[in-house]
C-alpha cells in the first residue's frame, strides 16, 4: 500500500472554492494509486478569531482550556472537507488528534509529540481511501487536549509520515510554489530551488524563512522523510527537502535568509569572573526566553560588555527578568531597530572563503555589521533594519544565486 501525506495550510482551506482546489490535489494523488492522508490546518483567520474570543472571556486564559478552544478550528476544517470528499464519491473519514491518538507532553500551547499510533490510519485504509487528519493537535496521556504551537500542522504531517514509514512522502502545500533562494518580495532575482538539504532548510527556517515550521524539518531529518513544498494553486513540482548529496555540497551557498524579529540587549561593564554569564542567561532560560546571538568583548580592567539577541516580542520580558536578576553590570541597553541576515549552504562545510566574501561584499555596500555568528552551514550578521533589503540583495548577487 502506497501512502502519500498531503498537508494544507489555512489559506488553502479558507473557503469552499479553496477546498475544491485541495480536493483536486487529493483526486490527482488517488489517480496515481496512492492512499492519502490529508492533514489540515484551521481555516484562514480562525485561530486568531478564537484567540481574540478567549481574551474577551478571560484576562489570562488557562493554557489547557485555551488548547481545548483552539483545537476546534481544525475540527471544523476536517469535518467540512470530509463532507466535500464524500459528496464527490470518495471514501473518506476524518480523525482528530486524540482519536489516533497523537500523544504529546503537557506543554499546553507548544506541546511536543511523544508517540503516534499509525496503525489506526492503516486500519482505516481497509475501508477508506482518504483519511482527513486534524493538524496542530494531540492529547496528553491523561486525555487533555494539546496544541503544537504555530505552524504545528507541518509538524503533525511530517510526524504522521514518519510514523507510517515505508518511504511515505509528505507534501506540504502552501500559497507559494516552493523554497526560494530568498524572499522574492525582498529580492527580484530570487528563484525557486529544486532541492534543498534538511540542514539548509532547518537553518533557513530558524533564520526567518516561513515556508516550513522548524520542528517539522527536525522530524523529517531524523526519520529521513522526503518533504516536498508545493503550491495549492498550481501544478508546480515544488522543492524537495531531502538528505544532502554530493551535488548539494558542490554549491557553496544555497540561500539567503533574514529575520526582522530581532532585538538586542547589551550589558555594560559586566564583572569578568566565573558565574557572570550564568547570572544573566540562567534566569532568561528559566523564563523560557530563547537567546540567539551572543557576543562578549575582550576583558578590560576586570570588566567586559556582553550583548545578545532575543525576539522583539520577548524584549520587555527579557528586561523585566534582568531587572529582577540584577546581574553585576553598570547598565543595560537595548534596541529593536535591527535585523538578521544569513548566508546558508551545506557547501560551506567543505569550502573556505564564504565568510570573507560575505563580509567584503557588505563592507563595499557600506553596511555595518553589529554582531556575527556562524555554524557549519550558515553565517549570520546583525545589521540595522534600514540596511536589510540592501544586505539581502548584495549577498544574493555575491553568491550568484
TrEMBL record:
Entry keywords, A to Z:
Amino-acid biosynthesis, ATP-binding, Kinase, Lysine biosynthesis, Nucleotide-binding, Repeat, Transferase
Which terms in the GO cellular component ontology are assigned?
Answer: cytosol
ACT domain location: 265-346
The first-level EC class reads transferase
One GO biological-process annotation of the entry reads: homoserine biosynthetic process
Respond yes or no to whether keyword Cell membrane is given for this record: no
Which molecular-function annotations from GO does this UniProt entry contain?
Answer: aspartate kinase activity; ATP binding
Q: Which NCBIfam families match?
A: asp_kin_monofn, asp_kinases, PRK06635.1-2, PRK06635.1-4
Q: Which PANTHER family match?
A: ASPARTATE KINASE, ASPARTOKINASE
Q: By what name is this protein known?
A: Aspartokinase
State the organism named in the record.
Mailhella massiliensis
Amino acid at each position: 500500500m502506497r501512502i502519500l501525506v498531503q498537508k494544507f495550510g489555512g489559506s488553502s482551506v479558507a473557503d469552499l472554492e479553496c477546498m475544491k482546489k485541495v480536493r483536486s490535489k487529493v483526486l490527482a494523488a488517488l489517480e496515481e494509486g496512492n492512499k492519502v492522508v490529508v492533514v489540515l490546518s484551521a481555516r484562514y483567520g480562525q485561530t486568531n478569531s478564537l484567540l481574540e474570543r478567549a481574551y474577551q472571556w478571560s484576562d489570562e486564559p488557562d493554557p489547557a482550556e485555551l488548547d481545548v478552544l483552539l483545537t476546534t478550528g481544525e475540527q471544523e476544517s476536517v469535518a467540512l472537507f470530509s463532507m466535500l470528499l464524500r459528496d464527490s464519491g470518495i471514501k473518506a473519514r476524518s480523525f482528530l488528534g486524540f482519536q489516533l491518538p497523537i500523544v504529546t507532553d503537557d506543554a499546553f500551547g507548544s506541546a511536543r509529540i511523544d508517540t503516534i499510533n499509525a496503525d489506526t490510519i492503516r486500519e482505516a485504509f481497509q475501508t477508506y481511501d482518504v483519511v482527513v487528519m486534524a493538524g496542530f493537535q494531540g492529547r496528553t496521556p491523561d486525555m487533555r487536549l494539546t496544541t503544537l504551537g504555530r505552524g504545528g500542522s507541518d509538524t503533525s504531517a511530517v510526524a504522521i509520515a514518519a510514523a507510517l514509514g515505508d518511504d511515505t512522502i509528505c507534501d506540504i502545500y502552501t500559497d507559494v510554489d516552493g523554497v526560494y533562494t530568498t524572499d522574492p518580495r525582498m529580492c527580484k532575482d530570487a528563484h525557486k530551488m529544486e532541492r534543498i538539504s534538511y540542514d539548509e532548510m532547518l537553518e533557513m527556517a530558524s533564520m526567518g524563512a516561513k515556508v516550513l515550521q522548524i520542528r517539522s524539518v527536525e522530524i523529517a531529518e531524523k526519520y529521513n522523510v522526503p518533504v516536498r513544498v508545493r503550491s495549492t494553486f498550481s501544478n508546480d513540482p515544488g522543492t524537495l527537502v531531502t538528505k544532502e548529496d554530493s551535488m548539494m555540497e558542490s554549491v557553496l551557498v544555497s540561500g539567503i535568509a533574514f529575520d526582522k524579529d530581532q532585538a538586542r540587549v547589551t550589558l555594560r561593564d559586566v564583572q569578568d569572573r566565573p558565574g557572570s554569564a550564568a547570572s544573566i542567561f540562567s534566569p532568561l532560560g528559566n523564563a523560557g526566553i530563547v537567546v540567539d546571538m551572543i557576543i562578549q568583548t575582550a576583558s578590560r580592567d576586570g570588566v567586559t560588555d556582553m550583548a545578545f539577541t532575543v525576539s522583539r516580542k520577548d524584549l520587555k520580558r527579557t528586561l523585566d527578568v534582568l531587572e529582577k536578576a540584577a546581574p553585576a553590570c553598570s547598565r543595560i541597553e537595548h534596541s529593536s531597530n535591527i535585523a538578521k541576515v544569513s548566508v546558508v549552504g551545506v557547501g560551506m562545510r567543505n569550502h573556505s572563503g564564504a565568510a570573507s566574501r560575505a563580509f567584503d561584499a557588505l563592507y563595499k555596500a557600506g553596511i555595518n555589521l553589529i554582531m556575527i555568528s556562524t555554524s557549519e552551514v550558515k553565517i549570520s550578521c546583525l545589521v540595522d533594519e534600514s540596511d536589510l533589503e540592501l544586505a539581502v540583495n548584495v549577498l544574493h548577487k555575491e553568491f550568484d544565486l
